[in-house]
UniProtKB/TrEMBL annotation:
Gene3D superfamilies: Tetratricopeptide repeat domain. InterPro entries: SEC_C_motif, TPR-like_helical_dom_sf. This is SEC-C domain-containing protein. Pfam families: SEC-C. It comes from Streptomyces tibetensis.
Length: 339
């Protein structure tokens, strides 16, 4: 399914089945693919089968990249079809584990919020921002939903603004303020007979829709292909003709950073990096009935890896590890390069 496919035109059951088949072909990407399959099952209304997929992931003998995310999604799904006690127990487990990834926090807090557990949702959002954003100079994009969710719940609870609300305002980029978007009285505007009030509400809803579309676009980034040094050596030994694409590993890394900065400066959103391996690339070439020596396959391979959930967002935060694998922070490594 393309990311711009209208929801009403999607056969969610068929899409889930397709993703499950793809996960069988690419077991290294099974976690990302099966999570998307479970999401389609939830949208189709088949929540019990979605739970089965979450259980399948959690029982994986190879472990998971983000088990807390899977547990959070399972809890949210369970609560939606009547398994409240089990959902609450899982949510408490996720909170107790204190994951470093903001996504599980967002999911469990929003699950509490959607079931009118506003105080518990507020506590969860607040705990998350304290753990993940204390002494952080610039909140990473992935943490913005924590700030926005906390702001929204506080407005519903009638709490006054604090420093975290001010931070949420500072990273909010839409023309309508968070206070307007999260105004508890907005619901009354929908029943108004005043054209001005209705028009104002339509503008607010359009702004919210724009934010949702931006968020939904992020799993499908414009991705640049990165080869670690040992993989690039193996690639060029097997297919020397590709040396025209990759004169040296240093030039390859510099080219990635330069290309991403150019795309960013041109206004291209949602940029990412995917890391290739020679066996994976050879399998992709075979699936395309082509030879790995065909350089035109390289961007297609990058796009395929991104669609399978393998992309890492660029740029990293200045203090985060550099994408190149040097072990240094991005600010000390490729983040210092001049554009």
């Amino acid at each position: 399914m393309r990311p711009d496919t209208p929801a009403e035109n999607v056969d969610h059951t068929a899409e889930a089945a397709r993703l499950e088949r793809t996960a069988g072909l690419y077991p290294e990407d099974a976690e990302a693919l099966l999570l998307r399959a479970a999401a389609h099952l939830e949208l189709s209304g088949d929540r019990p089968t979605a739970t089965t997929l979450y259980d399948r992931l959690l029982s994986s003998p190879d472990g998971l990249e983000n088990p807390h995310l899977v547990r959070a999604l399972k809890a949210s799904n369970l609560w939606e079809y009547g398994h409240e006690a089990e959902a609450r127990a899982i949510i408490e487990g996720v909170r107790g584990a204190s994951p470093k990834d903001p996504a599980p926090w967002v999911i469990v807090a929003e699950s509490l919020e959607s079931h009118d557990e506003l105080e518990a949702a507020h506590e969860t959002f607040t705990e998350a921002v304290h753990r993940l954003l204390t002494d952080v100079e610039e909140p990473p994009y992935a943490t913005h939903p924590l700030l926005f969710g906390r702001h929204r719940v506080r407005r519903m609870l009638g709490k006054s603004h604090d420093e975290w609300d001010a931070l949420a305002d500072s990273v909010h980029s839409l023309p309508i303020t968070l206070d307007e978007l999260h105004d508890p009285k907005r619901v009354w505007s929908l029943g108004s007979e005043n054209p001005a009030e209705l028009e104002a509400e339509i503008l607010r809803l359009r702004a919210e829709l724009g934010a949702y579309r931006e968020a939904l676009s992020r799993p499908f980034p414009v991705a640049i292909l990165h080869w670690p040094a040992d993989e690039l050596t193996e690639l060029l030994e097997a297919y020397p003709s590709l040396s025209t694409e990759y004169p040296s590993h240093g030039e390859h890394l510099a080219s990635i950073e330069h290309s991403l900065r150019e795309l960013s400066s041109s206004g291209t959103p949602n940029l990412g990096i995917v890391t290739g391996t020679v066996p994976s690339y050879e399998a992709f070439a075979a699936s395309e009935l082509s030879s790995p020596t065909d350089a035109t396959l390289l961007p297609q391979y990058a796009t395929t890896l991104a669609a399978r959930g393998r992309a890492v967002a660029w740029p990293p935060q200045s203090g985060a590890a550099c994408w190149c694998g040097s072990g240094r922070s991005y600010g000390e490594c490729h983040g210092t390069l001049t554009a």
